Structures are given as structure tokens and as C-alpha cells.
């Protein structure tokens, strides 16, 4: 029999169970809502708790020369800071290494004096007794960083950063280019080779709870991928010598600038690109924006007499001329359309051979030979030899100017036969003579050999284009005439390279007056180009001087050309000429 006394506890138990069951049901409903009904929403909220983590920087790739010598690389440097407050606190506690002694040890590593270090800390404390920051020294090397760390000083701290260094300074500096303060490539190979050189940064990421605590197992690391290494065709040792030489020669001639370009005949590879003034990418403040670009690719000029050889090529193939074809040419003549053409020296009417016109560099003779073919034919040959076209799309490279035939007036109809009314760069001039030296086959010039990825994969540059632009026989006749220029021309004694048969042709171009129009009076851009050895051409050398003032004619370039060609033959151990020169070609018929 149930009594009132027993009903009370039982009822309370049922009520308690009902409450507990209701709470459990509520929890289950809520759990279902969280994990099923609103799961997507809560997952989305959880993802907002992923920490950004830390970027793992990759290292920019190196630039090396043809032999593997490093021309540009990225290194880790360290900026060291001191905490004056911690220094004073430790001094009060009888430190193991007193500040007076520690500061001397620090200074011995950083290249400062102990007094310098103590003074900077004292000055900081004088301004703020609780100062916790003084910049000790920027850009410390890894060795200096390790030496300072080994002192185990609690008040010494470091920030690391990557910086670009150029071990050979200004050697090929204008070709290498540079990075700005943010690490962005601004010029040269640094910019041209960005796709290969640039690293891919990695990242460390993780998830955190609402309180910011990292959730175990949520850490994720994407490793950085270092940039690749760009190998150039440049020989840095040769480039160094030629830079020293052209700097001396340009200054000796009172010139504003000078360049030397060396191209390998059978490959089109640029083996040297020397310039003065030269850019040292380690010290941009020592240069100006005008001198940072490579003048070999950036500066165009009228080639002058160096392109008389191209006129001769057009006349040989287009009009059936030979080196012994003749015209009568005085030093000043008025042509049927009223154009007046002058030679650089006064002389009566000579019966010039084509070879003789090149040897004496007669503008009048070449005007007559050149106009034996139509302007359209001559325009075609100028295009074939690369006028008006970039050589390799180098940063800031210009294409030069080649006016269409319809724009040629009475005067330029003739001046285009001797290198005026169009412009080229030193690189284009080198490319034109590479074709002559290579038997009439033009090979696109190249500056980059390959890209080697961080994993060792080597990707060679695309094979250069080969194109026959003149007949092999035409190239042989041009070569013979250009050797006669070297032997019989006005610079013959100054450009001889003992043991080697050499070709040469000079150019003296007027300089445009950008302010007043026309040309500057008595100011010239001089050049000399040639290749050697004649019996087996290996290298083309181009020398330019911008506005020399001591000798204003192209003779100013002769000493530099001779030194450059001699050094190139030595550097590559080119065998001396073994086949004697053919008999001299007559200048007059």
C-alpha cells in the first residue's frame, strides 16, 4: 500500500528525471542544430579564425657569367639593435660582462669603436631614460651576426633581411641592372630575367580558437621556392679589362662616354659589353638615371661610314658590281636632283673602284655606287642587316630609326648610302658585321645562356634565329674589301694586331641637336667595327666614343679598337692567321 510518505520521494524523482530528460533533449536539439542544421555557417565562422601565419621568403637567384663566376647574388644581412634600458638594468645587477667591456667587444666585431657604441647608448638614455631601442649597425654579415650572438648579451637583438650584392662591382653593371629599395627589378638582366630569378615565397599558417590559441594539428607549411640562376654569355674577365681600357681611352679623348661590344661570329653570343661611365649596382647614388641604362642597347646614332659596307652589299647583289667596278668621284659634287654631297677631304675627280671608295671612305663615290640600285632595294638591305629592329628586346633597348622610302628627300636619297638619315645601336652594328664575318648568315645576338632552377633543372635559352641575308660570295668580297680598308686606310698603322689579319671600318656621325634642331657643330659620335682573323673570322669588335674632343674624327677610336681586338684574341687563344692576305685591291681603276 502506497502511503503519502512514499509518494513524495517518488514524485520528486520523476520530476527530476523529467527535468534531466528535458535538458538532454535541449542539448541534443542544439547539437543537431550546430552539427547538422547550421553546420556550414559554423564552419565558415571557424575558418575566419585561421591565422595569417608567417611568410617564408624565398631567395632571389644568382646571375653568373659564361664561366659560372657570380655577378649578382642575394645574401642575408642583419641589422643589430641595442636596448639601453636593459643595459642599465644589467649594470645594476653586477653583470657577467660589464658594459664597458661588452661595448668594446661589440665594436671590434661591427667595425666601430667602443666609444662610438657607448656614446650612442648614452645619447639615447639622455633623451629617454627608459629607451629600449638604438640602431647599432645595419647590413652586418652572417659572420658578424654569429660573432655577436656568441656574446650572449640580452640587450642585443637582430632583424634579418635579404639584400642584393654584386661581387664584381661595376663589371657589366649596366648589363646586370639593379633592384630598387623594395626589391623590384628595375633594369638590365635583373628585369629581363625576372621570370627565372624571382623566388616564390612560402607560408606558415594555422588555425586558432576564439581566444587566439593555436589549434593543435592545424599548422600548415608551404615551403618557399628559391629563384633560378641566370647564366650569361658574358666573359666577366674580358669585360673587366675592356671596361678599364675604354674608360681610359674615352677620358684621354675627352669623350662623354665610350663602349666596347664583342660578339662571337659563329654563335652570335655577346662575349663582352663594356661601358664608361659604368654603373656599379652596389652604389646607385654614384650614378645618374642617364648613365644607368646600357648605352650599347639604349643609345642610337647614325652609323656613318661603317654602313658603307651594307651599301656595297646591295650594289654587288642588286647591280652586279665587283670590288673593281668604278665611278668617277670628286670631293664635292652636285647631283641631278640638286643634292650636294661632300667627302671629308678635298681631292680631284678620282676613278674610284668600289674597294677604293671604301678605303678612302668617299661619300661621293658610295652615293654613285649605291644609287645604281633602287631606294627600295637599299631599304631592303638595311632591314636585312637589322636596322630599325631591336636586337634582343633588352630593357630600355631602342630599335633605331629607319625612315620609309617615301620619306627620303633629294638629299637623303644619297646620304642613306653612307650611313645617314637612319640610326642604329652598337649592338645592331655588331650584329650587321657578324653576318658579313659569318659568310652572309646572320645569327640573332644573344646575352643569356640558360636558367637553372633551384632544383637543378636547366632550361637553355631558345636557339637563335639563323638567316642568310647575302650570298656567301658577297660576304667574301666584302670581307676582302674591309681587310683592304684595315691595311690601306688612314688608321692602318694604329689598328694592326700582330699575327692576325683584321678587317675594319670607321664611322663618324653627326650628333643631333635636340634643342635647336639639326646637328651640333663640330661634334661627332665616332665608331670603329671589324672582325678577325680574316682567314677564319671568330670575333666582331665594335668601339664607340660619344663626342670625343681631342680627336673628333673616327681616328679617336683606333687605339681602343686595337687594344680591344688584341685582348680578345689573347683571351680566347685564337690561332694567328695562317693564310696570307690576297694582293691589295687597287683604289683607282
TrEMBL record:
- Indicate the segments forming the Penicillin-binding protein transpeptidase domain, all copies: 258-565
Asked whether the keyword Membrane is assigned, the reply is yes
Provide the Penicillin-binding protein dimerisation domain boundaries. 56-215
Q: Where in the cell is it found?
A: Membrane
* Pfam families named among the record's database cross-references: PBP_dimer, Transpeptidase
Keywords noted in UniProt: Membrane
Report the Gene3D superfamilies cross-referenced here.
3.30.450.330, DD-peptidase/beta-lactamase superfamily, Penicillin-binding protein 2a (Domain 2)
Q: What is its main location?
A: membrane
Q: Which family does it belong to?
A: Belongs to the transpeptidase family.
Which named protein is this?
Answer: Penicillin-binding protein 2
Q: Name its species.
A: Microbacterium algeriense
